[in-house]
Amino acid sequence: MVQWLEKNKIQNKLFSAAWSIFLLAGFFWLTEWYIFDETGTCETVWWVLEYIIVIVSAVIILLNFICRKYSWKVILAYGIVGVIVLLSTYFSKDYNYIPVFLIFGAAYKQNSKRIITISAILTAAFLLIMLICSQTGLVENTLFWRSDGTAPRQSLGLVYASTAPSIYLGFILQYIYLRKQNLRVWEFAILEAINVFYFWATDSRMPFYLGTAVVLFFFIESLFNNHWRFTKHLKWLTVIAPGLIAVGTVIVYFLYDENSKFWESIDRVLSWRIWYGSRAIDAYGIKLFGQEISWIGYGSGAPEGTYNYVDCSYMQILLQFGVLLLAAIVFLYMVGIYRGAKRGDYWMVCILLIVCAYALTEPYLLNLVSLPLPILAVLALEPQSEPIKFEKNWLKNAINAE
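^ thats the sequence. predicted structure below, dont judge the formating
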């Protein structure tokens, strides 16, 4: 049976399907079709897709056990994380990390080029479809306004104005990972031109600033023949960086003083993100396995009540899902960065660090729909991590990579 499974690549085919459904379900959940549906049909469809993801992922994990793909170390680590996820789910009453946990288990040793190619294509297609639909009236294009009454911000058919630019930032990072040193000037120019368009349409500053910085950074790096010559000497510093960022972030929120002019000047630049996070700590406290919290923001379909949304991903996970789950997620990033550094893939290392940095102000630390790069921590990186070249049958070869 093991030989038959490996010969027919059953796990690869099943995971490609599960991964595609996972992304499509996540994208669908972010649309205003889903948000403003009063019939309950969209919610039913979404739940059906979620059940399919869970079932197919569980089947893949079982087949991986039969094929003995997991080492005892992996089984032990996965088991510990599984217990943490179950306990955090129970205390938070939020089930979103269950399918994510199963996806990670099913993704083990899947081909990185194939998986990221699939997500990059689906992301690009989704953004294009939503842009067309929002501009032709096929989906609601809600306008958001800043507190000073200026800058109408288009939702482009999604839950909030910053959603589409954040998803596009994820596409930029995926595209750079796939192309690496093969990137050309015209590709950087197109990536930035689209980034400017999203800024013009949504006035979303954080994804625009970071997206521009990412494009410029990788463009400058591409000008040198000896890639990452300095980064190679920072291996262990890059590995522990996610932990340092997480701990430093939590300390900042505890040290914050709303009566201090110093903190006020910093927080004003961050649109009062630290103030809301500090208030959330006072209101809810920190728990080992999290607690039930109803986040109320400014997005479409948000529940009524006093605004309490915490944008910082580290603090949001810490408050809602607890200390241990945040530690597990940070450790996942450290594993991914270690694997990238060990193989000399500093494109991957820098991309994962960029996601960690973006999570300081946005809730995308482990949002695989918007920024799926953390899944690289468990994917096969060699020899499949070679950059894509736009040659004959390149897409077919990438999708069918073993």
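The mean pLDDT is 90.
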